[in-house]
Amino acid sequence: MPYHIVVCGSIVPDPLQTLEPVTSPTGPALKNELMLPAVLDPWAGHALFEAANLAKQHAGSKVWFVSMGPKAKLQQVMMTIAQKVPFELVAIDGPSSGFTEASEVAAALADAIQTIPGLDKAHLLVFGGWESASRGAGVTMQMIGERLGLVDQFQGVDKLTVRADGSLEILERIEGGKHQVSTCAGTPALLGWATGNLPEPPNNPQVGMLNMRTVMPALQKAKPVKLAGEGLAFASVSLPKQRRETRIVKDMAPDDIAREIVEWIKKD
Predict the structure, then answer these.
(1) What is the spatial distance between Cα 80 and Cα 203, in angstroms, rounded to a whole number?
(2) Which of 46, 118, 163, 227 has its CA 20 to 30 A from that of 1?
């Protein structure tokens, strides 16, 4: 059975860069945010690679990647991601900042999904990150599912197996470092991915050239979206305070070091 898989993912600043929050006239932002190089959100990356792997196993399946961000940043990231796996981009020209309201982001993404031509909702799977490196509210995917009428939702997914009868076996993370195995009768369904089980695919220039035929037109006709942020307020934004207490001691026995560490932990 072919699947229509829609992957929702955002772009985030490269984690190797120094991120400094500032207060701008429009609200909280990152210092020199437009100058920071961007990458695909790691959780969204896992979801995209899992979607491509599933589509490869089932003939006739198709993958769409729905992403909201500044067009220039999206183009920068797509130049790299397009070489990984085949997909069709659905671009939304809007903010990619973490200082956005999850419900507004979910509404924009859900609206974009509903306008995808030829999308078969009976065979629909919506993938996305269980968390996010910028929009880590942990509720965006759930809200997208509710707006699309998807009642079968699974979060913290590490593995998806399609059974012979078409049902889905899903391995989900739960509390205490454990997993639970869930069974879904079939599509439609929404899966928020954790790390998955697949490595990052190698670059394939042929896949990149094929993807770029649709990526550039999608960026050119990206619908602009402005998030109002109504009811959202930040008292202040600042970097976490660093605390470092260093003591240099020579020739200390390992047992004494371990005992001192245990005593230090017990204080908290």
Answers:
(1) 8
(2) 46
- Report d(CA 141, CA 9) in Å as an integer: 10
Q: Are 142 and 21 in contact (CB under 8 A)?
A: no
Break the chain down into helix, strand, coil percent, rounded to 5. 35, 25, 40
- Residue 61, helix vs strand vs coil: coil
Q: Record the pTM.
A: 0.81
Measured CA to CA in angstroms, residue 228 lies from 59, 82, 101, 110, 153 at distances of 42, 31, 9, 17, 28
Structural domains of the chain, with CATH: 4-224 (3.40.50.620)
- Quick one: pLDDT at residue 230? 60
pLDDT digits (tens, 9 = 90+) for 26-64: 667 777 777 788 888 888 999 999 999 999 999 999 999
H/E stretch holding 254 reads helix 254-267
Give the E-state strand segments of the chain in sequence order: 4-8, 11-13, 21-24, 27-30, 38-40, 62-69, 88-93, 124-129, 153-162, 168-174, 178-184, 189-193, 223-224
> Exposure of 122 by Cβ count < 10 A (0-12 exposed, 13-18 middle, 19+ buried)?
exposed
Tens digits of residue pLDDT in 99-155: 778 888 889 999 999 999 999 999 999 999 888 777 666 788 999 999 999 999 999
Calculate what percentage of the chain has a pLDDT beyond 70: 92
Q: What's the pLDDT score for residue 191?
A: 94
Residue 86 to residues 76, 189, 215: CA-CA distances in angstroms? 17, 22, 11
How far apart CA 47 and CA 83 sit, in angstroms, is 16
Q: How far apart are CA 86 and CA 210, in angstroms?
A: 8
